Amino acid sequence: MTQPLASLRKSLACAYPAAAAETIALGAPALDRRLGGGILRAALHEAYAETAADAPAATGFALALARRALAGAEKPLLWVRQEALTAESGAPYPPGLADIGIDPAAVAFIRVRDAKEALQAGLEAGRCATVGATLIELFGEARAYDLTTSRRLALAAAAAGAPIFVTRIAASPTPSAAASRWLVRAAPSRALAANAPGSAAFAIFLLRQRGGAAGQEQHEWRVEWNRDPGAFEDRTFDASSLSGPVASLPVGGASGESAPQRAGRKFG
């Protein structure tokens, strides 16, 4: 559902549990081993798309992480998005959310004009333990997202005990307080029976991990999202079995005809 920021402030009753070092496993064994069990739950995480063409991949990856964070919790996802992203990569698509494993009815969606408004709304939501996860989508360099702002978001996530995910679309990584930072690109999917489009596939590179040696191994993981268990799976791709350069995403819908053509299959 879509809520104005003023309504959101009134509807969220905030509480502040103690921060914990609990992790969220991604489900892919090799990747989880590299992460020491997973990403920190009560922390800020970033997903970068170098170009607008990879925006659906970065958003899909962040939503899948949010799905992992929400597993077993009867709490909503709050999704804040800049208006400019609708023209670039399509509008949020409820059947696509369901295909990831997120109940569209459990998503509070806020559309804002600029990065400053997106960050303010995300900060207010991220401070509340009644929110299971927060996703903030930013387009372009978004100068409002500086080191100070990222620290506020990280502190909010730590205080509330729930993750905040920031996707940076068509932007370059900058210093921040994120516990992990990922570069995400669309990857070829493996064809299903009758050459049907395969599951959402991602090429991900860990640029930073707090306390880790991210970026030193120069290693890229290829993973697919398995909707049924709600987990990522390690994949070694066989070029002869590919259905095309596909990263399935929950965007586009009837109003998303401008979504990048490389996203060959839409959820739903």
Q: Give the overall shape.
A: globular
Overall residue-averaged pLDDT value: 81
Helix content: 25-40%
Strand content: 25-35%
Distance between the termini: 18 Å
- Please tally the helical runs, counting DSSP H or I stretches of 4 or more residues: 7
Biggest beta sheet summary = 9 strands, mixed
Radius of gyration in whole Å, from Cα? 17 Å
User: Would you report the number of β strands?
Assistant: 13
Query: Strands across the major sheet, in which order?
Result: 5-4-6-7-3-8-10-11-12
**Uncertain parts:** 15-19, 237-268
Pattern of helices and strands? HEHEEHEHHEHEHEEEEEEE
Structural class by helix and strand composition = alpha/beta
Q: Secondary structure elements and their pairing?
A:
Layout: H1 5-11, E1 23-24, H2 29-34, E2 39-40, E3 44-49, H3 55-70, E4 77-82, H4 84-89, H5 94-100, E5 107-112, H6 115-126, E6 133-139, H7 147-160, E7 164-169, E8 180-186, E9 189-190, E10 201-209, E11 220-226, E12 231-234, E13 242-244
Parallel strand pairs: 3-7, 3-8, 4-5, 4-6, 6-7
Antiparallel strand pairs: 1-2, 8-10, 9-13, 10-11, 11-12
Would you write up a description of this structure?
The protein is of the alpha/beta class. 25% of the residues lie in helices and 25% in strands. The protein has seven helices and 13 strands. The protein has a nine-stranded mixed β-sheet, with helices on both faces. Strands 1-2 form a two-stranded antiparallel sheet. Strands 9-13 form a two-stranded antiparallel ribbon. Strand 11 (220-226) and strand 12 form a beta hairpin. Helix 6 (115-126) runs parallel beside helix 7. The protein is globular and about 50 Å long. The chain starts with a helix and ends in a 24-residue tail after the last strand.
